[in-house]
Amino acid sequence: MKQPGVTKNLSRTLPQLFCGQAFLLMLVLVLQPGLLLAQGWSSGGPLSPLQQGFDVTFYDISLEIHPDEQEISGAVTAHVFALKEGVMQVEFDLVNHFEVSSVSYAGLELPFTHENHKLIVNLPQLLAEGRVMPLEISYAGAPPVAVRPPWQGGFTWARDSERRHWVSVSCQLEGAKVWLPAKDHPTSRADSVRIDITVPKPYFVASNGLLEQTEAVDENRHRFLWMTRYPIHNYNINVTMGIFEEVSTTYLTETGAEMPVVFYVLEQHAHEGPQLLEMTLQKLEQLREYYGEYAFASEKFGLVHTPYLGMEHQTINAYGNNFEYTIIDDRPYDWLLLHEMGHEWWGNAVTVRDWADFWIHEGITTFTDALFLWDFYSPEVYYDKIEEYVRFIRNHQPIIPGTDMTSAEVYNHDVYYKGAWFMHTLMHVLGRESFFVAMRSFVEENRFGYTDTASVEAHLQQFTAHDLSSLFRIYLYETGLPRFETEQSENDRHTWRLRISGVEGSLPVQIWTSEGLKVVPISGDWLTVTSAMRPVIDPGSWYLQAAMFD
Asked: Which of 67, 320, 106, 311 is nearest to 197 (CA)?
């Protein structure tokens, strides 16, 4: 999900550059933390006993959108895969806004209950471990309306400037249960999804993967059949309906293969498309340098114009930044586009199995937002933005407060900004070159799989002699921060003692003395240095320190 901040067209005057609306939105989050999930739905947490017994390998979605009524209807066939022997019941998540008319298997209607946002189905026979049973779930109703998308998700029933329908869905924090029957948990990614959507003419539907068929239903309606054959989170399944114009270009992969890059943009804004796609190609190439090739190159990189700000829906990123680019040194870039693109690597290709590790999605992507500025503009712009992140860090709870967490329990701005600063620190400890080798290889080894914080730590540890365990503990599992201390000798004004409290072992830290800049290992034991001036510890601000919050 996009970081809770907005940037506008501004000259390169930092710290103003990344504030403005960003600060106002962050203030809302600080003062009203419950606002994010006011409807009471979140995703993840401990799996129920029934949900531990199965997974869904394939969703076949066949729905109709009724924009005038603000309702949807149709059926979803979920291919249930037994994870253990003798599965008798399966439990889907589906909000009570919908009325389920039937659940069937091979034409046989099955008994079910739908209460408290849970759809429990009795299977016609015991399902053996490793076997699959497709269950067709027919339902209809008015899905929850998104109160403040994408942070408070659901359906957005909007109108464009011509008063034509403009409809989209967003549901990362709530999960797909706000419009689909699903096993709504980060450990459950379908291997593939078919998305068959019927809408009134002349509206178009953009979705994940590739458009395989368009067909008239009758003189008033037509349907769009999309298919993605990559593993996908159910919250990343997306449909957006509007009067769009397709603007496209081509991206060349590392192997020289061509991939379509497509922007479905409201037709009255189609003239904005080419510049945004030019930026998209720049970012695809730069992100490839950081983390390896775009993972979904057999389908597309897609953008769709949405009535809300943005979201990283796999292969069809939501874009609603109104083409308001940040201008630095007369060169524009779109921060919203960049952030959501970063999630195609961190969140969509590499995925956490527990929302406790949400920082891997959001913190690394927010760090990448700054990293791009290093290469697109200059290191100075990168450092300016990293320093801006401090004002948004609250440090009220650990980034990882436990295990089997729900999205509501962990989602706050620290998973973005403190997580990003932690990556900044790790780049210093590993060294920029080793850091990128480590990150690229991590993505390559974990693409389309699940990961967690322990796996990230173990992988990065292979690329440095410095013990990373205390850094991971301090910055992710605790709220205490390191504090650097300096003492001058009473007997010799050129002799100084330095140490760091709150960290086990030593850290490679820059110090600035009368002899210049050097990196030395600093620990809890006093280190003696000679300098005609008071030494400056960590002048490059690589470590998030307690003094920053005094």
From this structure: 67
Q: Please work out, in degrees rounded to the nearest 5, the angle formed at the alpha carbon of residue 504 by the alpha carbons of 498 and 506.
A: 50
Rounded CA separation 375/344 (Å): 20
Contact 180, 237 (CB under 8 A): yes
Q: Which residues touch 513 (CB under 8 Å, ≥6 apart)?
A: 529, 530, 531, 533, 535
Say how far apart CA 233 and CA 80 lie, in whole Å. 16
Nearest residue to 180 via CA among 76, 104, 110:
76
pLDDT in tens, 135-175: 999 999 999 999 999 999 999 999 999 999 999 999 999 99
CB 258 within 8 A of CB 301: no
The two structure tokens encoding residue 294: 């775009």
Strands (DSSP E) found in 312-372: 317-319, 326-328, 331-333, 351-352
Q: What's 107's DSSP letter?
A: T
Q: Checking DSSP bridges between strand 118-127 and strand 210-216, what pairing results, if any?
A: unpaired
Confidence class for position 505, pLDDT limits 50, 70, 90: confident
Q: What is the pLDDT of residue 503?
A: 84
pTM for the predicted model, two decimal places: 0.92
Pairing of strands 258-266, 244-252: antiparallel
pLDDT category at 40 given cuts 50, 70, 90 is confident
DSSP 8-state code for residue 134:
E
Q: CA 269 to CA 352: how far, in whole Å?
A: 36
Whole-angstrom distance, CA of residue 45 vs CA of residue 356: 9
| Order of all β-strands in the sheet with 165-170 | 154-159, 165-170, 239-242, 204-207
- Residues 370, 286: Cα–Cα separation, whole Å: 12
Triad 339, 341, 346: Cα angle to 5°: 85
Q: Give the DSSP H/E element, type plus range, for residue 286.
A: helix 273-291
Taking residue 71's Cβ as centre, other Cβ atoms within 10 Å add up to 17
Region 508-522: mean pLDDT is 94
520, burial (CB in 10 Å: exposed 0-12, middle 13-18, buried 19+): middle
Residue pair 114/97 in contact (Cβ under 8 Å)? The answer is no
